[in-house]
Design a protein that fits this description.
heterodimer; A: mainly alpha; MetI-like fold; 2 domains; B: alpha/beta; 4-stranded antiparallel β-sheet; 14 helices; 12 strands
């Protein structure tokens, strides 16, 4: 197991290098704009643009730029400076990480609390009215784009522009340490909107897993033992059907920690996703590069964690 | 005294989108303490449904069950779900075909045994664990102290089936239903498992119902044999009667498709041609007629019922051929003649005693 983890961690490094190189290359070949021009004011002259290019290091060959970038990360854990804000990218990301983590954790709690019970009930009462209603609703929730759902939610429920003013609207995010009550209130609507599609997806996934599991031979054995149906479902059925859910959950958490770009943008939450969006808008390469690397880091680590957790959940899986 | 388990006129029907499946169609049998009843038939003949119904595991919205399953003086079909649950795994236990898929892959063998004990006995976890080790010892698993903490996938096929048997016997049931317990196992292991079952039966004095598609398996083990075809029992008798004077063409087919070392090589295996009938659209007349080498025209119309074989108490068969002709055909088959050759007997017999109008139906069915 130890050797397996070390081998996987080495792969994480390789993967992150590849991701950074690809991001670099894409931005170099297909820039969203010329960063130097964006910073040169209303009527820039070529000399000014050249000077800005030089100060940003954009005049050097791409491999030199890339080499310096990687060197900075490896030696000093320095992700460069934002072209726009002249702040260290590392600091910018770490400042925004709490908002992204808050958004992710809250949404995860909500979608598990909603998705898992619905999935189980739908599986146990499959083809019932309840099941059909829940799965129909789930299909809607999965089909609705999250940014659209977010805008509709704001339009309906935000306490500034909403028709029924019951939730804090966009741009009200407050840090947890600053004011826990406002933190909770400001994130409630984004949590629900973000959780909707996930809850729907998880309930459908769990439902189909559980229906399949309940036809397994070992469920028949459990019933033949004389166990109560409740214990058969929970102890034998759900235990087996939940395992793939844990896998997907790990990956989803990893993805969201990299920044829920759309939700953070719609609700104006100062998280990593919003930072990435701003970076793209402003052709701010170090910011884009930094957020992409962070996102990739969370995803590969989540993958690793999932694989390790899986070995504990399913005794048949052993890594060597 | 009435037997431990007495099934009478049991019918199980499932309604599906394609129509009603007549999985079990009016069967009756009995199983008694210390005895072994073997139910033999192809897949889809209703043998497993019969036993699952006995355990109350086929109850559902789309299922219709009628008849009677009397166990220890109670009709199981009238019991509530909770009453049935207190019998399952306690008075009646069951083991299944594939021991790997029948054990929960995520729980240690010990945990699964402890669960089986504690669901019916209010004992502490540690004494249930001691009992688990004892059970593993009883079914011949070496090093049970260590094995009790292992997962099913760490056991070999035969050892897994021993675990299943240990689990089934955890509460010393009065009746053990073994549904194809050796089918998924190696031939050498098959014999060991059957020996183990037999030995445990002697020790614990339970009734066993052994379900199998393989008559070869049951030869030494069975006291009584019931042959099922398309949801019905087509022949029933003692093991001796079934092996030495079988009366139904389907039983002949089953017997002739067992490989044997003591018969000559040529023509030794005679498969039963065709496939089992659909249980939704069942054949007219005798259900076996589309596959029967000895079929006569009227067999396609007349539905035979189980009736006594003359001179053999306890032996019943549902066949429209005259008893004397059946004996001649079986003697021919036993001597190595093929069904095609023997068909001439049916034709000759039909010519000497024309069927139409001469014999009343009751006699036809009764013979």
């Amino acid at each position: 197991m130890g050797r397996y983890i070390i081998r996987r961690l080495l792969w994480v490094i390789v993967l992150l290098i590849v991701v950074s190189a690809v991001t670099f290359l894409i931005f170099y070949e297909l820039p969203s704009a010329n960063p130097a021009v964006l910073r040169a004011g209303r009527s820039p002259n070529p000399a000014l643009i050249a000077a800005i290019s030089k100060s940003l290091g954009l005049d050097r060959p791409i491999y030199v730029q890339y080499w310096l970038y990687i060197k900075g990360i490896v030696l000093h854990f320095n992700f460069g400076y934002s072209y726009q804000f002249s702040l260290p990218v590392r600091t910018m990301i770490f400042q925004r990480l709490p908002a992204t983590i808050s958004l992710t954790v809250g949404a995860v709690v909500i979608w598990l609390l909603i998705g898992i019970p619905i999935g189980i009930i739908s599986a146990v009462r499959s083809r019932s009215v309840m099941d059909r209603t829940a799965m129909g609703g789930a299909l809607l929730a999965i089909s609705a784009p999250s940014y659209w759902l977010g805008l509709v939610a704001l339009y309906l429920f935000a306490n500034d522009i909403g028709i029924v003013k019951i939730f804090d609207g966009a741009g009200t995010y407050t840090g947890l340490t600053a004011d826990p009550g406002r933190w909770f209130g400001s994130l409630l609507l984004p949590w629900i909107v973000l959780a909707a599609a996930f809850a729907a997806f998880y309930s459908r996934l769990l439902r189909s897993n559980l229906i399949e599991t309940m036809s397994e031979d070992y469920i028949r054995t459990a019933r033949a033992k004389g166990l109560s149906e409740r214990r058969v479902i929970w102890h034998h059925g759900v235990r087996a059907a939940i395992t793939p859910i844990i896998t997907v959950l790990g990956l989803d958490i990893g993805t969201l920690l990299g920044g829920a770009v759309l939700i953070e943008t719609v609700f104006n939450i100062p998280g990593v996703g919003r930072l990435a969006y701003m970076g793209i808008e402003n052709a701010d390469l170090p910011v884009i590069q930094g957020t992409v690397l962070f996102g990739a880091f969370f995803i590969v680590i989540a993958n690793l964690v999932v694989d390790i957790v899986y070995a504990f959940l399913d005794p048949r899986v052993r890594y060597a | 005294m009435s037997p431990l388990l007495e099934v009478s006129d049991l019918r199980v029907e499932f309604s599906t989108e394609d129509g009603i499946v007549h999985a079990v169609d009016g069967i009756s049998y009995a199983a008694d303490t210390g005895r072994t009843l073997c139910i033999v038939g192809e897949s889809g003949s209703g043998k497993s449904v019969t036993s699952l119904t006995t355990l109350g595991l086929t109850r559902g919205r789309n299922t219709r069950v009628s008849g009677k399953i009397e166990f220890d003086g109670r009709d199981l079909l009238t019991l509530s779900g909770d009453e049935m649950r207190s019998i399952r795994g306690n008075d009646i236990a069951m083991i299944f075909q594939d021991p790997l898929s029948s054990l929960h892959p995520f729980y240690k063998v010990g945990a699964q045994l402890i669960e089986a004990i504690r669901v019916h006995r209010s004992v502490s976890r540690s004494s249930a664990r001691d009992r688990s080790v004892e059970l593993l010892t009883m079914v011949g698993i070496p090093d049970p102290q260590r094995r009790v903490d292992q997962y099913p996938h760490e056991f070999s096929g035969g050892m897994r089936q021993r675990v299943m048997i240990a689990m089934a016997l955890a509460n010393e049931p009065k009746l053990l239903i073994a549904d194809e317990p050796t089918t998924a196992l190696d031939v050498t292991v098959q014999a060991q498992i059957l020996e183990l079952l037999q030995e445990l039966q002697h020790r614990l004095g339970m009734a066993i119902i052994l379900i199998t598609h393989d008559l070869g398996v049951v030869a030494e083990f069975a006291d009584e044999i019931a042959v099922m075809y398309a949801g019905r029992i087509v022949e029933r008798g003692s093991a001796e009667q079934i092996f030495f004077s079988p009366q139904h063409p389907y039983t002949w087919g089953l017997l002739k498709s067992i490989p044997r070392l003591d018969t000559p090589r040529e023509g030794e295996l005679v498969p039963i041609s065709g496939r089992p009938p659909s249980l939704i659209q069942r054949p007219s007349g005798c259900f076996f007629h589309p596959r029967c080498p000895y079929v006569r025209d009227e067999h396609k119309r007349i539905d035979p019922s189980l009736s006594d074989v003359a001179g053999e108490p306890g032996h019943e068969a549902a066949c429209l051929l005259p008893t004397e002709l059946r004996s001649r055909i079986w003697r021919g088959l036993a001597a190595g003649e093929t069904p095609a050759e023997l068909r001439r007997l049916v034709v000759e017999d039909g010519q000497t005693v024309p069927v139409s109008g001469r014999r009343p139906l009751s006699q036809e069915e009764g013979s």
